[in-house]
Amino acid sequence: MFSKILIANRGEIAVRIIRACKEMGITTVAVFSEADRDALHVSLADESYCIGPAQVGQSYLNMEAILSAAVVSGAEAIHPGYGLLSENARFATLCQQCNITFIGPTGEMIEKMGDKDEARRTMKQAGVPVVPGSDIVESVDEALRLGAQIGYPLLVKARSGGGGRGIRRVDSEAEIERAFLAATAEAQSAFGDGAVYMEKFLFPVKHIEVQLLCDAHGQVVCLGERECSMQRKNQKLLEESPSVAVSPKMREEMMAASAKAAKAIGYRGLGTIEFLLSQDGHFYFMEMNTRLQVEHPVTEMVTGIDLVKWQIRVAAGLELDFTQKDVTLNGHAIECRINAEDPYHDFRPSCGQITMLHIPGGPWVRFDTALYQGYTIPPFYDSMVGKLIVHAPTREEAIRKMQAALCEVVVEGIENNRELQLDLISDERFGDGSYTTDFLAERG
Ligand code: ADP
Ligand code: ADP
Ligand code: MG
Hints:
There is one protein chain. The chain contains 15 helices and 23 strands. It is of the alpha+beta class and about 450 residues long. The strands form six sheets. It has an eight-stranded antiparallel β-sheet with strand order 14-13-10-11-12-15-22-20. A five-stranded parallel β-sheet has the order 3-2-1-4-5, sandwiched between helices. The protein is globular and about 60 Å long. The structure holds adenosine-5'-diphosphate (2 copies) and magnesium ion (MG). Keywords: ATP-binding, Biotin, Fatty acid biosynthesis, Fatty acid metabolism, Ligase, Lipid biosynthesis, Lipid metabolism, Magnesium, Metal-binding, Nucleotide-binding. Pathway: Lipid metabolism; malonyl-CoA biosynthesis; malonyl-CoA from acetyl-CoA: step 1/1. Acetyl-CoA carboxylase is a heterohexamer of biotin carboxyl carrier protein, biotin carboxylase and the two subunits of carboxyl transferase in a 2:2 complex.
């Protein structure tokens, strides 16, 4: 096992990883930008290093500075969290070259799955159903030709896209030229890669994903599904496990398809296979995330398995000490993302000092955050500042527990989406589980 790990991230996920390390007896090294001197992850870690100015490009994405901090501190491994460098193949490879374990799959594997076009082809070959669509589209003419084959509406999607960005909807042939050119330009500036492909726009659909955990000894375990259909602009807002829409038989099928996918590519580490589930009960591979996910806590709650600890153990080469047969899904878990943004003003990000903070408690209520009273949220980073997670024997009880817990949350000094979350979980279509990814757009 590693004796020292550097956490190449910030915010709640850095705190989450530091906690896992502490429980495992592993020394922690934090890195931080000039804007994050007072951040919680810095005070919780055993050691910390400033790696550059506030802008992520110069700090949390600065591979040389992060690797230098790892070498200087003697860290044997780097945990990248989510976002930032977590799906950066070059960084994973650089770590390996510096003799530091990247806690995640190999650079090669990240490249294979991070290229969403190649991932689609790989999955098709492995016999996993994929969303109908095209390979890379090179020109407007090709987009027109393929568009006619796929049919409208369709989506133009960035090959290197992520975080819900780089996706454009096209409702008719007349819109395709503009969408293709805009998506290419947007993808080029956001991801440094302008390549796009097209997919049939499926609707109404649910977003269902399967959590995988694979060790270096060929063991593949699926930890049930998460439903992430509650989205705004293709970004997840709240997640739950299990999904009301997934029957035991469908769960078996989805987990079998996911395990097949993982085995086909020799995957190692924590990973997620994302599917779209149509109303006729068919599911289609959408993408694989080769990292820890924001919504991992709901899976932890229903399985009782600490995903971060296992991710670290598997990266250290340890064997899973349980098999698929040992995995049982208990009760129901829901997560609400608490974002520092103003739902009444087009979700504009909000920053500033937290003048009053009250975090809900009680049995089976978890609040993952890096906030503390008096902390000043800097304007440079992601607006997600906390995750409220509850667990109960039934979905009905989990919803009531979430309502009670949300009512208790107090984050004063900034705008946040707590009330929107309350509205969402109290909505009839959430209550009966029939909500699909277009729920927020439809609701207005
Ligand atoms: P998850 O898939 O874990 O639910 P999200 O899709 O919300 O998580 O992404 C997690 C974080 O990573 C978000 O802060 C998101 O903005 C960021 N992110 C994900 N993929 C990318 C990417 N390719 N480029 C930049 N940021 C990304
Ligand atoms: P990202 O890498 O940004 O997470 P995804 O490919 O996972 O991108 O898509 C993000 C979201 O966009 C999905 O959760 C879903 O709501 C929507 N989406 C993506 N592809 C399709 C599709 N073909 N049809 C309908 N919705 C889609
Ligand atoms: Mg996705």
